[in-house]
């Protein structure tokens, strides 16, 4: 199945104050990922933000869980996020 229209859920997260200071703030992530979506012609459905939340436990990440629910209900067909603090990734 080929999906022509990419509808993106953009996931933003930092777990520490240090990450925010080192240039990984939510606003900087949002700006970078918004530019990428525009370049790839993705329609942004929503920004999902988990601020100050560790990635260790999925149940403690409310915005990420909301994103998963939106995927299940077919509101979103592409995830755009920064993983590993230095890589921009999208999954569709």
Characteristic terms for this protein:
single chain; 92 residues; Rossmann fold; 4-stranded mixed sheet; 3 helices
CATH class categorisation: Alpha Beta
- Strand content is 25-35%
Structural class: alpha/beta
- First and last CA, distance: 12 Å
Biggest sheet descriptor: 4 strands, mixed
Known CATH architecture: 3-Layer(aba) Sandwich
- Fraction of residues in helix: 25-40%
* Helix-strand topology string: EHHEHEE
Tell me the domain tally. 1
Report mean pLDDT, rounded to a whole number.
84
CATH topology: Rossmann fold
In CATH, the homologous superfamily goes by the name Resolvase, N-terminal catalytic domain
Overall outline = flat
Total strands: the figure is 4
Strand order of the largest sheet: 2-1-3-4
Low-confidence stretches: none
Number of helices: 3
Instruction: State Rg.
Output: 13 Å
Describe the structure.
The protein is of the alpha/beta class. The protein has 3 helices and 4 strands, in the order E-H-H-E-H-E-E. It is 37% helix and 30% strand. A 4-stranded mixed beta sheet has the order 2-1-3-4, sandwiched between helices.
Which helices and strands occur, and which strands form pairs?
Blueprint lengths: L6 E8 L2 H8 L1 H15 L2 E9 L10 H11 L5 E6 L3 E5 L1
Parallel strand pairs: 1-2, 1-3
Antiparallel strand pairs: 3-4
